[in-house]
Amino acid sequence: MTFWEWLFPFGRGQENMERYTELRSGPILNTIARLEQRIMERFPESGLSKVCKEFHVLAVRSELLARNLRKPIWPVRIIAILAALLLTGLVIFAVQQLVANFSLGSEGMLQLLQSAESVVNELIFMGLAIYFLVSIEARLKRHSALKALHHLRSIAHIVDMHQLTKDPTQHVVSIVQTQSSPERKLNRAELTRYLDYCSEILSLDAKIAALFAQNVDDEVVLTAVNDLELLTQGLCGKIWQKIMILDLGE
User: Fold this and answer.
1) How do residues 194-242 score in pLDDT, each as one tens digit?
2) Greatest CA span in the chain, whole angstroms?
3) What is the pLDDT of residue 200?
4) Among the four 113, 142, 148, 193, which has the fewest Cβ within 10 Å?
5) Range list of H helices, the chain
6) Which of these, 146, 149, 150, 155, lies nearest to 235 by C-alpha position?
């Protein structure tokens, strides 16, 4: 084992070991496509089928974005490097001029102190400018990832709205319907499948979001992905409570 392999054991060159330690987008997208077909076959006129169809399109776009964010944005990186080199060259030129014009004596020492103060200020400014230029690429990737995660979060809330009125107690106890009660046409088996489909969409939604955490090394993106996973877990928990009520009632 070389020094770099010891220092970075999970770096590049570990592709053969990532079959079961890295999320692969292909199987996830295939699962979403099959889930869309299953919902269309069982509930062709339902709003959930339209939600899953839109979610499939969003998942394909998000997967492509997550894959692209893994690569460097070369135009931005090249411009940032050139700008950083230009700033560095300007500071070096200023230091050379200071050294060339320096002379011994009281006036020269006073001029040296004043010039040194200016050089320190320029170095601080240059450091901030270089940090800004270097972080442009990361901030662009963060903005794109957060925008996609916002759409994935919206899908989760929409799925929750579709299962909101799916009350399992109608198959357990006798309840008198009112004029404002939502229309409930699903029998016990259909309601179980409907709720299960909602749970699957939420789980796959979190897996698509996890692709951004896997491909973008950014704390803000990782926090947003974790928040989305917690949201989908909580919504799935409510759905499975309804499924358990149906199972216990039977």
Assistant:
1) 999 999 999 999 999 999 999 988 899 999 999 999 999 999 999 999 9
2) 102
3) 96
4) 113
5) 3-7, 25-42, 47-69, 74-100, 106-164, 188-215, 219-249
6) 155
Tokens of 234: 């909580």
Q: Decide: 191 and 42 in contact? Cβ < 8 Å.
A: no
Domain ranges, ordered by start, for the chain:
25-174+184-249
Instruction: Find out whether 93 and 50 touch, Cβ atoms under 8 Å.
Output: no
| Spatial distance between the Cα atoms of 73 and 71, rounded to a whole number of angstroms | 7
CA distance 43 to 51: 12
Q: What is the pLDDT of residues 43-88, one digit of tens each?
A: 998 899 999 999 999 999 999 999 999 888 888 778 877 877 877 7
* 36 contacts: CB under 8 Å, gap ≥ 6: 49, 52, 53, 55, 56
Other beta carbons within 10 Å of 168: 19
Q: What is the DSSP letter of 2?
A: -
For residue 109, give both structure tokens: 């020492």
Tokens of 185: 């046409």
Tallying the residues shown for the chain, one arrives at 250
CA 245, CA 209: separation in Å to the nearest integer? 30
From the DSSP assignment, how many helices (H) and strands (E) are in the chain? 7, 0
Please give the single-letter amino acid code of residue 184.
R
How far apart CA 163 and CA 217 sit, in angstroms, is 35
Q: Which residues contact 24 (CB under 8 A, 6 or more apart)?
A: none
Residues 55 and 203: their CA atoms lie apart, in Å, by 12
